[in-house]
User: What shape does this take?
Amino acid sequence: MEGYVKSVSASNVPEGSMMTVEVEGEQVLLARVDGKYYGMGGLCTHEQWDLSEGVLEGTTVTCAGHGSMWDLKTGKGEFDEPLDSEPLYDVKEEDGFIYVKKL
Ligand code: FES
Assistant: This one.
């Protein structure tokens, strides 16, 4: 598990949910969709709202701030103005904990 940082208990991210955690000083959005974990930058690049306060539908996160839509698979956001992409993270579960590595 080289390069991975131990994060929260996997029970904190049940199927269909998301939460923001801090990993080495960065805010990371963790989400679980169809049994797979995703990791993406946790603060909207529009005006820095916490993306975990938004709505998760499939692998799309709608920001609670002003409605930009983020793809957990690509880190790209759609909005009516260009937005910087979010960084992506690899997320694994082992022994009941979540491990995160920046890609
Ligand atoms: S802060 Fe996310 S859309 Fe404005």
In short: The chain has one domain: 5-102. The mean pLDDT is 97. The two ends are 14 Å apart (CA to CA). The first strand starts at residue 5 and ends at 9.
